[in-house]
Design a protein that fits this description.
The complex is a heterodimer of chains A (357) and B (323).
Chain A: H1 2-5, E1 7-11, E2 14-18, H2 20-42, H3 50-57, H4 63-98, H5 110-128, H6 133-163, H7 170-194, H8 197-208, H9 216-243, H10 247-252, H11 257-279, H12 285-297, H13 304-325, H14 332-356
Antiparallel strand pairs in A: 1-2
Chain B: H1 2-18, H2 26-34, H3 40-74, H4 86-101, H5 106-128, E1 129-130, E2 133-134, H6 136-160, H7 162-172, H8 181-208, H9 212-217, H10 222-244, H11 250-262, H12 266-291, H13 299-317
Helix pairs in contact in B: 1-3, 1-12, 2-3, 3-8, 3-10, 3-11, 3-12, 4-5, 4-6, 4-7, 5-6, 5-8, 5-10, 6-7, 8-10, 11-12, 12-13
Classes of the chains: A mainly alpha (357), B mainly alpha (323).
Chain lengths: 357, 323
Amino acid sequence: MALLHASPLRVGALSWLVPVRAGLVALAGLVLLLVLVAVDLSVGDFPIPVREVVATLLGGGDAGQRFVVMELRLPQTAVAAGVGAALGLAGALTQTLARNPLASPDILGITEGAALGAVAVVVASGASGYGGGLVAGRLQELGLPVAAFGGSVVTALVLYAFSWRRGLDMQRLVLVGIGLGAALAAATSYLLVNARIQDAASAQVWLSGSLTGRGWEHARPVLVALVVLTPVALLLVRSLNAMLLGDDAARGLGVRLQLTQLGCLVVAVGLTSVSVAAVGPLEFVAFVVPQVALRLTGGSRPPVLASMVAGGVLVVGADLVTRAVLPFALPAGIVTAAIGAPYLIWLLVRTNRGRTA
Amino acid sequence: MLGVLLLALAATALLSLALGSRALPLTTVVDVMLHDDGSEAATIVHALRVPRTVLALAVGVALGVAGALMQGQTRNPLADPGLLGVEAGASCAVVLAIYGLHVDDLAGYAWFALAGAGVAAAAVFAIGSTRGGPDPVTLVLAGAAVSALLGAVTQALVVRDAETLDAFRFWVVGSASGRSLSVFWEVAPFLASGLVLAALSTPGLNLLQLGDDVAASLGLSPWRQKALGVGAVMLLTGAATAACGPIAFVGLVVPHLARWLGGVDYRWLVPASGLLGGLLVTLADIAGRLVVRPAELQVGIVMALVGGPAFVLLVRRTRAVRI
């Protein structure tokens, strides 16, 4: 079993620690993710067999199938997979940095900042628009992602500015984040309580995190952010391992602490911001996915790659459930919680039994 | 120090009786409190201000004590009483009551909230327990998972039905106004038994900070300790949520404030958190009445809007607030 966890690989004078089990879990997850993506692309009002979906993706298929798969379904599935991976990675990084399973980007106030921005747009444009309902609708469509992104980035900057005091202390950062998040959430509820009920209802849908009708314009920022930021995260993994031993020990091992923390935070905030802008706050994903991945791989901190894959699986799975299984429309954020939470509970119960046996 | 807090609490309660959209002189307040003469001032004080002051105080004390216990039990300074699933359970039950049974009065919500809180907390405790007693990390994770699951049910109903949302959005921000004293008497037995359990479990908390194994070797039964502590948190938070709706932030922040004032000994921390909680919630309620007169801001909103930035400044100023 010990060999399965991580085994050293030696070539001449060089040696690496290969995390075998984490790698296997990530690989299995990737296969599952690909299967889910294929199924997700094939089901819908116009069902297409999985074999033809694959053919269409590779350049075959007739014009109708190409349109349905490439223009209608692929963007939404790409958003789902991308957002899941992004949130999984962001959660794994912040939980590792703070050495606390509760320290997901949700608790740092970043999602709350995005929510405030978006709800403000919904309420403001809704109130102005009896005559100009169409105009207000267009404004919402364009303004929502921008407002959400702006809200989360401004929150992150304020968070960083207020936590900085002769260096960055992760514990201070988390506490400041909680304070900020509470104030922002209160402002959001103030808007919701005083809004017209129609606006409050449509804001509520956004607040639950919805994947419906997402196109390439939503998918592109998420995918670009993943391509740019994932390598940065992978570069930082070595330093993260050392930092698990405590800040002082990490410094003694030659880790540049401030730089690593800043790097991880930039990656986490960037990924969270683009995700929230694309689909709204899928609150539970960044928190639960790293914990599930940790329990599957059995390491000492949430694994980076396995968390990304698990996040993709969870959100694509939720998209599949909303589109194919449920008889009525439900925002995907509700479904991610409804799938993720029981799974985490099951894992908790199972590990408990294992521990006492 | 506790005496100073107690005095401050009494003064705040008096202010809460006097201030509002129609301010009354303190002498009048004392007068009509002593004998109800049926005047307009007496009606205002007895029918409106006494119930909300009593509720704000009781809820604040309950949430403060619950927060300190929760952080001590889980050894996690980020733990909030809401993490045990209590607030999510109460919210879910209230939404179900509004949606399915068309309950529309606050006293009716309170029973559903209590029941929901109890069921959710029991589930969390069952999932989070091992045979050797609940493990803090597992307990917190179980709470978060159950909260998310119940939150999904709540969201699903609220998203699908605008009428439910319309009633629910006013409950969920947390408010002490518009309730009669009967709501307080409904939850009082739960509050009282919660406080008794809290008093029983507090002395062991300091030992528990050393870890379960060390605490056990020093003669503490971790299982008994946690059953008491978690029971207290459930009762206190459940009763508070039932009375006023979920008031975020109190249970999380007040213990940090108490640590900053007087150190980390739980024998000081638990009672001090209770008094500070009562103080803060009552002050927030007063502020909510005054800032947008004659309208009102709900106490939950004021609490977080003022408390959030204040907490940030506190964390910045001192090195005393430590995770």
